[in-house]
Each structure stands twice: as C-alpha cells, then as structure tokens.
Design goal:
By secondary structure, the chain is an alpha/beta fold. The chain is built from 12 helices and 5 strands. The protein has helices spanning 2-17, 27-40, 54-91, 94-100, 118-129, 144-157, 172-183, 193-202, 218-233, 246-252, 255-262, 274-279; strands spanning 134-138, 168-171, 206-211, 238-242, 265-269. A 5-stranded parallel beta sheet has the order 2-3-4-1-5. Helix 5 packs parallel to helix 6. The longest helix is centred in the N-terminal third of the chain and has 38 residues, at 54-91. It is elongated.
Length: 280
C-alpha cells in the first residue's frame, strides 16, 4: 500500500514538472511483421494472386483429376488385356495344357473326341465345375488318359486353370524320376526332397497318370504316400489313372495309398482297347 502511494506521488511530481512519460509499445515490430506478411502472402507462381492462390488450387484439382483418369484408363487396359488373355486360353487351351505337362500325343484329347461312354463323360465333365478326386481304372487302352486330359482341357477352357501353377499332369514314373533327380543335383540351387514333394502335393489340380507302372520301392511308395496324403488332407482334387484295382494297389503299393484313393469317385472303364478302336 505504501509503495502504491509512493508511485502516485512520484507521478504527480513528474506531471507538475512537465515530465511526460511515454509508454513502451511494439507498434514498429508489428508494422514490420505486417509488411512481411503482405510481401510473402503472394503466390510465387502467379504474381498478383494472394495466398491461398485460387489458380494453384484449380491447377492441383485439374492434375488430380487427370491422374485419376490415367489410373482409370490403365485399369481398363489391364482388365481388357486380362480378358483377352483368358479368352485366348479358352480358345487355344493347348498352350496351357503343354505348360502343365501334357505331351503332344494327348493335346487333342477332349470329351468330343472320346467316342461312347456318355455317362462316364458326364461324370468327368461335372468335375470341372465341382472339382473332386477321381480314379479312372481299367485295362490298357480303355481311354483313361484321354478322359483325364479332357478334364484338364475343360478346366482350362473354363478359366479354372490359366497356367502351369494351376495344374500338373504327369505320369507317376516321371514324377518320381523328377523328384529323385531334382533334389540330388549339383546345379547350385539347393532344394530339398520335401520342396519337390510339396510342388506336387500343393498344386491346385494334379493328374497322376499310370499309377502302378512305377517300380515299387520303399522310397517310391513313401514319396507317393506323402503326396497323396497331403492332398487328401487339404481337399485338393486329384485325378488318378491306373490299370490296377484298389486291392492291387493295396498289395503292390500300400494300404494307406489305397485307402486315400478309395475316398475318391471310382470309375471303372470296361471298354475294349480304345486306341485300337480309334485307329480302326
């Protein structure tokens, strides 16, 4: 209280003596700042336009729309090329069939060129829309391989298989040979036996042709059993062709393989030698 009274008395004395006290102000600084804002608030790209620049905004909008249009056209082109590619596969399935492992002798095999056995063909055709495992069994020349390849052909034409990653066609002897020679080579690219087995075990669609024609060894049986069992557990469709009955497979290979195959649809072909009939 005493300090406030002293300050008041000091002010009165200054006024009496004509001493004017000027209050401190930031006005010069504020003026400078305002001038700087005015200077730098102008668009560098469009002199005369203050920020935010409407011209820049319109240009950015136009660029954004142009970029969207380019992306849309690129997507349409990619989709068009994809559809053209798929249509070409459907019109000419042989190239994909070859990539899947079908040899030249069987490239022309189709349901149309298989004469007779209409009920059997109907069952095989149904597998294209609803894939499941099937065993085609019968004597040599009864058309087992022809039907198996026809299933693959229709799967390609239906867009279910579009490249070699979607299906594998192989004879069982060739399968075992490729696995044995593959994991033991010295190419510098190391792959284990399991890697080669998984290639067949995990492919979406597998055709095992001529099961039972391979030399029966403990290793061959174990390898086949591993592939068939993994496919069985993963519900992956497999087409088997064989001259053997399930009982003969059980005795010649293993009960485990026969048991897994028994879960598939079994079709017995009792036709005469189809190859001779076709060439007659």
């Amino acid at each position: 209280m005493e300090m406030e009274t002293a300050q008041e008395n000091l002010l009165k004395k200054r006024e009496a003596l004509g001493i004017v006290v000027q209050e401190k102000t930031n006005q010069p600084i504020l003026s400078t700042l305002n001038a700087m804002v005015e200077k730098f608030a102008v668009c560098n790209s469009h002199p005369g336009e203050k920020l935010p620049c409407k011209v820049c905004f319109d240009e950015m909008q136009a660029q954004r729309e142009h970029r969207k249009e380019r992306e849309r056209l690129a997507e349409e082109k990619a989709e068009r090329e994809k559809q053209e590619y798929l249509q070409n596969i459907k019109d000419h399935p042989e190239q994909t069939m070859t990539a899947c492992g079908v040899g030249k002798r069987y490239l022309s095999c189709s349901f149309e060129t298989f004469k007779g056995a209409d009920k059997v063909k109907a069952v095989c055709k149904a597998l294209v829309e609803k894939p499941e495992s099937i065993v085609l069994t019968g004597d040599t020349g009864s058309g087992k391989t022809h039907l198996a390849v026809a299933i693959l052909r229709e799967s390609v034409k239906a867009g279910k298989v579009i490249n070699s990653k979607g299906a594998i066609f192989t004879t069982v002897p060739d399968l075992l040979l490729s696995i044995r020679s593959g994991f033991g080579n010295s190419s510098g690219f190391e792959q284990s036996e399991e890697d080669f087995v998984n290639e067949y075990a995990k492919t979406p669609f597998l055709i095992l042709d001529d099961l039972g024609a391979e030399k029966s060894t403990e290793w061959a049986t174990a390898t086949l059993s591993a592939i068939i069992d993994k496919r069985y557990r993963e519900l992956l469709p497999t087409v088997y062709t064989t001259n053997l009955t399930l009982d003969e497979i059980s005795n010649q290979l293993s009960r485990r393989i026969s048991s897994r195959m028994s879960e598939a649809k079994i079709i017995k072909l009792s036709m005469p030698d189809y190859r001779r009939k076709r060439s007659a």
